[in-house]
Amino acid sequence: MSQSLIGKTALVTGGSRGIGRTIAERLAQEGATVALTYNASKAAADEVVAAIRQAGGNAFALHADLVDAHAIAALFEELDSELVDRNGSNGLDILVNNAGNSGWGGLADASPESWDTIFAVHARAPFFVIQSALSRFVNGGRIINLSSSLGARPLPVVPIYSMAKAAINNLTHALAMELGPRRITVNAVAPGWVRTDMNAAVRENAEMVAAIEADTALGRFGETADIAAVVAFLASDQGRWITAQVIEASGGYKL
């Protein structure tokens, strides 16, 4: 690895599993001190932290239930304390809004509660996490939001999730303009089909797998490392002139 992020601090929400875990590991490999959040499984978060430290990196885990907007203030109080202890400052260089929850559910079986829960994590939480992070952010920092190819090409089986990801794309554009004077870049990475436990049931269906791969220019499901590589590029100095972009990292799904 290039160690392009030595001396940087990063917060990765939802960093205990799937894409978030691999992003946290990649940023740590590049030299960043990584704070990762988890909700349901402290054991999984501790496993990620242990793996990062064993590889020579620096990381710690913080609990945050991002369905509850009021949990965000407590998250940043704890983050401040941890960063000051480690670095003597609560300055933040990189924020990756990755946390998510299941977006399955169509028009017929949706409820106000399911709508609120999906939007709370995928749209409201990133907004207020960014709001809280700004007073800690150094000039020239990086904000990277995890979107989805469904934000631009929605599926009828997941309309609420698709709407929430479209909201993240819009937020990315709006904040890039606002934060440009501070040289803070704001971008979104929009994966397509990636091998994670959230779509394990889909991957058990051989016909669906064949159809998805046939609709993908590169002919396969993505791996979490494919997404982490794009995030690491945007977080590095190499990505300094890229902002207000929604970068689809889908292997060319449904071109």
From TrEMBL:
Source organism per entry reads: Pseudomonas segetis
- GO molecular function ontology, one term from the record: oxidoreductase activity
Which family does the entry's similarity section mention? Belongs to the short-chain dehydrogenases/reductases (SDR) family.
InterPro entries, per this entry?
NAD(P)-bd_dom_sf, Sc_DH/Rdtase_CS, SDR_fam
List the keywords (alphabetical): Oxidoreductase
> How is this protein named in the record?
Glucose 1-dehydrogenase
